[in-house]
Design brief:
Strand order of the largest sheet: 2-3-1-11-12
Distance between the termini: 129 Å
Low-confidence stretches: 296-312
Number of helices: 11
Oligomer: single chain
Structural class: alpha+beta
CATH superfamily of the largest domain: Ribosomal protein L10, N-terminal RNA-binding domain
Length: about 300
């Protein structure tokens, strides 16, 4: 049987969770792997008072959320239960999700590549001097990296992708990165899911801008218009195109017959006397006379008539 202190701790934790669920409407589910205690304190301090981080055993978080849903009749938080696996926490907020996300991403620290670690990103090593003496060329040879000796140090001939995302870091790769002083990975709280309006969605949705939305809507309207025109089915998207196409047909009919109207008459006049319109176009676009030439002519006239002779 658990001791009285443990029972009291569980009850206090449950009350804390219930209070958070009552207070906040939005949340992030975040992964906390490789996050140090000092780094965690900095993140907590930076997020207050707009957001609160809840950590704990997954079983305790699930138990409290389930009990809250049963007792309060509010089932909206149930959708996050299946995502409380591995080393995760919940960040509750009522503020702007993008602002909180930016604040979370500020607190990522560099970390060395450890042996057998799954690389979270590609690792590239740039060409150039490594600062290592020639006796350490074996590290580069083991990885098949072309090098040369320049001024007593090893120099990499070209850029190299040392580790690919999703692969395990090998011993030679980890040693070489350590000797080069490269910390290729950054760790912090990783946002896995976003909870808002009783639903969960991928954090990539927060990166969608108004311009992205406008492009998607424009593309959809273009597709609807093309389909409507191809099937002769009028829609709001296709009507402007239908009107323009109709006008083209009327204009073509007018040009082929004696029937005319103001817009068509202008085109007929242009076709009947193209030289006049060709001459009018350059005249309208002709540049104004250059001022410097006027000023030069004025200076010359002033020099010619200065009011006296050199022999006076």
């Amino acid at each position: 049987m658990p001791g009285a202190s443990k029972i009291a701790q569980k009850e206090a934790y449950h009350e804390k969770v219930c209070k958070l669920l009552d207070t906040y409407d939005k949340a992030f589910i975040v992964g906390a792997d490789n996050v140090g205690s000092m780094q965690f304190q900095q993140i907590r301090r930076a997020l207050r008072p707009d957001a609160i981080i809840l950590m704990g055993k997954n079983t305790m978080m699930k138990r409290s959320i389930k009990m809250y849903c049963e007792t309060s009749g509010n089932d909206k938080w149930k959708v996050i239960l299946d995502h409380l696996v591995n080393n995760v926490g919940i960040i509750f907020t009522n503020g702007d999700l993008n602002d909180v996300k930016e604040e979370i991403n500020k607190y990522k620290v560099g970390a060395p590549a450890r042996v057998n670690l799954i690389a979270p990103c590609d690792v590239h090593v740039p060409a150039g001097s490594t600062g290592m003496d020639p006796s350490q060329t074996s590290f580069f040879q083991a990885l098949g990296i072309a090098t040369k000796i320049t001024k007593g140090t090893i120099e990499m001939v070209s850029d190299v992708q040392l580790v690919k995302q999703g692969e395990r870091v090998g011993a030679s790769q980890a040693t070489l990165l350590s000797k080069l002083g490269i910390k290729p990975f950054k760790y912090g709280l990783e946002i896995q899911q976003v909870f808002e309006n009783n639903t969960l969605y991928d954090p990539a949705v927060l990166d969608i801008t108004d311009d992205d939305m406008l492009k998607s809507v424009s593309a959809a309207i273009s597709n609807v218009a093309a389909l409507s025109l191809a099937t002769d089915y009028p829609t709001l998207a296709s009507i402007p195109h239908s009107v323009i196409n109709g006008y083209k047909n009327v204009l073509g009919l007018s040009l082929a017959t004696d029937y005319t109207f103001p817009k068509a008459q202008k085109v007929k006049d242009m076709l009947a006397n193209p030289e006049a319109f060709a001459a009018a176009a350059p005249a309208a676009a002709a540049p104004a006379p250059e001022e410097p030439k006027k000023e030069a002519a004025k200076e010359e006239s002033e020099e010619e008539d200065m009011g006296f002779s050199l022999f006076d």
